[in-house]
Specification:
This protein is of the alpha/beta class and about 475 residues long. It is built from 11 helices and 21 strands. The radius of gyration is 21 Å and the shape is globular. The structure holds flavin-adenine dinucleotide (FAD). The site of flavin-adenine dinucleotide has 44 residues, from helix 1, strand 15 and strand 19. GO terms for molecular function: oxidoreductase activity.
Length: about 475
Amino acid sequence: MSTVSTANGGISFWYAEEGTPAPREPLPGDSSADVCIVGGGYTGLWTAYYLKKAVPFLNITVLEAKFCGYGASGRNGGWLYNGIAGRDRYAELHGHDAAVRLQRAMNDTVGEVIRVAGEENIDADIHHGGVLEVAHTPSQLARLKDFHSVEIAFGETDRVLRGARETAERIRVSGAVGSSWTPHGARLHPAKLVKGLADTVAALGVTIHESTPVTEIRPKHAVTPYGTVRAPYVLRCTEGFTAGLKGHRRTWLPMNSSMIVTEPLTESLWATIGWDGRETLGDTAHAYMYAQRTADDRIALGGRGIPYRYGSATDNDGRTQPATIEALRDLLVRFFPTTAGTRIDHAWSGVLGVPRDWCATVTLDRSTGLGWAGGYVGSGVATANLAARTLRDLIQQDSGQAGPTDLTALPWVNHKVRRWEPEPFRWLGVHALYAAYRTADRRESASTHLGTDRLAKVANRVSGRH
Ligand SMILES: Cc1cc2nc3c(=O)[nH]c(=O)nc-3n(C[C@H](O)[C@H](O)[C@H](O)COP(=O)(O)OP(=O)(O)OC[C@H]3O[C@@H](n4cnc5c(N)ncnc54)[C@H](O)[C@@H]3O)c2cc1C
């Protein structure tokens, strides 16, 4: 099978059929607002949504560098699920019960996104089939079982562990020796969700300016080449692009993730694979993969390509290196050998934000009115919604309209983290980390040993990941 006919970049496959949305007007000049939101992805748009719903007279402006959904929100794997980066660290810092509250809030968030999408008539191809994570090697199986027990300890009593045969009854992943399934996940079409959200908040009266890059955020100011928006609250919702803002080069590292999508598979091919439940599918490798069966019966599959570009460089409209496309295609065929002759229609990449301690955060600095949310490390589709409701509550509390809430008391609120190392250490560190993970995955595949490879443990410790 060749990838010569594969479309490459163009933001993502998710825009290939429907096209990118019609552009909205840039900022016409200096202006003011009650809340200025920088970045029109899920975080910025959900925040605008919940604030406007809570206080309809609020004057909210969203400033977006390109178009709403240009970033990871229009490119991701469409796993709406309950994972949150940093939960175990928050358990260490704030105690187990606090982390359980955070996990419960994430479990509820999956339903919240589905509820609002329904209420606002956003058709995002949502299918609530849960998340199935498979193991391929003895080490992965041991890790999967540990992971399964830990999730149950954090209150997920509805999680199910499946053996090889039961796993194959759901999805016939070649060589899978077991899996863990949770109902707290759904498959969706990322770009349909972000476009629907942008249209919904615009209809509610939120002002959105596109093609308007913010160059600097200062207390009460968002500065752009076309003028400055003055607002008591300025919220930074730029996730993987944060390094592009003045003073933020080392705040969050822009990590790359790449995806491919097949042509629609025939019914006879699907009969060899199963996957009737349309669960989102992942594995337990160190350099893990994620996949979904799309509404039009393709397989969209993602994983780590080139993890990081020197100097926190971010984007080229999703163009992906041929070697990464080949590696993802090989992974697809390893999972589903009957797809060996299947065409790969599209490949693309995007960036996500990684804090130095790999913990997602949501913050409102009450002394400056500056807020931010992100650092979701690849688990942002649901987390952005929880972050947005939390930012709403923090602003309402700060402006005296409401008191503290269950959300403002969650342990990821106002968490502080140190910055990344300067270059070249940042580049060397991340490339060494992923080289170590790939070696560990190879060694685990060749071994009957049950434990996690030592190299991966060292890499986790050195990187600050666990
Ligand atoms: C390939 C890929 C697959 C993924 N798969 C999943 C998944 O399956 N499940 C999951 O939970 N998570 C996944 N993620 C992560 C998830 O998509 C993100 O965490 C989430 O979309 C982040 O939303 P956001 O609004 O914070 O950031 P983004 O969607 O990146 O939005 C930020 C926006 O800010 C704009 N912007 C940036 N800088 C400026 C500026 N200076 N001025 C104005 N605007 C600016 C950008 O143009 C962009 O539109 C994936 C990410 C990638 C890249």
